[in-house]
Structures are given as structure tokens and as C-alpha cells.
Automatic annotation (TrEMBL):
Keywords: ATP-binding, Kinase, Nucleotide biosynthesis, Nucleotide-binding, Transferase. One of its GO terms (biological process) is dTDP biosynthetic process. This is Thymidylate kinase. Its EC number is 2.7.4.9. Belongs to the thymidylate kinase family. It comes from Rhynchospora tenuis.
Length: 212
């Protein structure tokens, strides 16, 4: 009741299809917040550095084959292994800008045909993002942008399915930003939305878990 609100950092996630501009925008947002004197770190999932992350990476570059459910659980475990650190960072006032999170986890696996609820279950209890910035771009348009790489999933037909599942996962933490706008316009929009979110968290918006 008379709980003093705790100032904390915010968890800001960028999501979108491959070639939607996510990674560039993460980098830009990160430097901007840093230049504003805020405590901020840039994270990404999969985190390919850890032992689990290396298994994921070798799967993505087709050096290994894994059952669809097994790889789904590895992606999730890769987030779980960073959960405690994530909570400490947020509680100590550091803002996190994260390139992909549970929404990618669910959308990509569901696009392979796995049951949506089954895909969501292992994400339950991870920290819920304060803000999800979804860079919305038609899959055809994304495919035109310098082409896809050679990794698994980087194919137009598959990306179309992923896009459908992403939009089915939208919740109140989401802001859909038109990824077809000029890079500078997207950057400006993201800055504004991020600053707003950071202020709310600093003023004590409570930390909650997925899927709330
Ligand atoms: P990058 O291109 O961003 O490195 O992603 N993916 C990602 C999943 O299938 N499940 C997940 O939980 C996450 C985080 C999306 C590599 C690919 O991995 C997919 C693209
Ligand atoms: Mg990629």
C-alpha cells in the first residue's frame, strides 16, 4: 500500500523481421541514450557467446540439426540464463536495449508449425518488456533490402509466416513503428517512445513477468 516506488531501468525490446532495420536502430538508440548520460546497455538474443548460444549459432548456420522443440527450448534457456543478470541491471537503474526477445522466440517457432501456447509456455516468468518497438515492414520489402543472408529462416515464404505470428502476439507493451519510413524518421520515433518509457520506469512503474 505505502510501498515506495522504486526507480529502475527499463527493458526495451526491438522486434521485427530480418532486414527490418532492428539491429541498426538498436545501435542508434543505444548511442543516443548513452549520449544523454543515461546508464544503458545493448543486449541481443540469441546471445551467441554462452555455451547454449553456441549451440544455437551452429544450428542457425546449418552446421547442426536439431528437433524443432529442442531448438525452441534452447532459445528460451538462452534467455533464462540471462534473467538474473537482467533483473539486477534493471533494479540498479541500467536501461537495457534488447535486439529480439521472447516474441521472436514464439513467432519463429510457431511459424514452423509448433503450437502457439506450447511455444509461449517456457517464456512464462521471464521479465516482461516495458516497451516493445516493433519495426513493421512488409516481408517483400525486407527481402529487397540487400537480400537475406545464408542463415536458416532467412527466406521470404518463412518470413511471411513469422510476420503473422508477430502480429498475433501484440500486447499493450507494443508500439508498432513503420519500418518503411526513412531511417532518421524511425530513429526519431524510437527515441521519443524510449524516453517516455524510461521516465515511467524511473518513476517506479513495477517490474512484471511474462505473459502479463
Ligand atoms: P539474429 O539474426 O537476430 O541473430 O537472429 N530466433 C531468435 C528464434 O528463432 N528464436 C528466438 O528466441 C530468437 C531470439 C530469429 C537469428 C535468428 O534466430 C531467430 C532469427
Ligand atoms: Mg538474422
Amino acid at each position: 500500500k505505502d510501498k515506495t516506488p522504486m526507480a529502475r531501468g527499463s527493458l526495451i525490446v526491438l522486434e521485427g523481421l530480418d532486414r527490418s532495420g532492428k539491429s541498426s536502430q538498436c545501435a542508434k538508440l543505444f548511442s543516443y541514450l548513452q549520449s544523454e548520460g543515461l546508464s544503458v546497455e545493448a543486449w541481443r538474443f540469441p546471445d551467441r557467446i554462452t555455451a547454449i548460444g553456441q549451440m544455437i549459432s551452429s544450428y542457425l548456420v546449418n552446421e547442426s540439426q536439431l528437433d524443432d522443440k529442442a531448438i525452441h527450448l534452447l532459445f528460451s534457456a538462452n534467455r533464462w540464463e540471462k534473467r538474473a543478470l537482467m533483473e539486477r541491471k534493471l533494479k540498479s537503474g541500467t536501461n537495457l536495449i534488447v535486439d529480439r526477445y521472447s516474441y521472436s522466440g514464439v513467432a519463429f517457432s510457431a511459424a514452423k508449425g509448433l503450437d502457439l501456447q506450447w511455444c509461449k509456455a517456457p517464456e512464462e516468468g521471464l521479465i516482461a518488456p516495458d516497451l516493445v518497438l516493433y519495426l513493421d515492414i512488409p516481408p517483400e520489402k525486407a527481402a529487397e533490402r540487400g537480400g537475406y543472408g545464408i542463415e536458416r529462416y532467412e527466406k521470404l515464404e518463412f518470413q511471411k509466416k513469422v510476420a503473422e505470428y508477430y502480429l498475433a502476439l501484440r500486447d499493450s507493451s507494443w508500439e508498432v513503428v513503420d519500418g518503411c519510413l526513412k531511417m532518421e524518421a524511425v530513429e526519431e520515433k524510437l527515441r521519443e517512445l524510449a524516453m517516455n518509457c524510461i521516465l515511467k520506469c524511473w518513476n517506479g512503474k513495477p517490474l512484471v513477468n511474462l505473459w502479463s
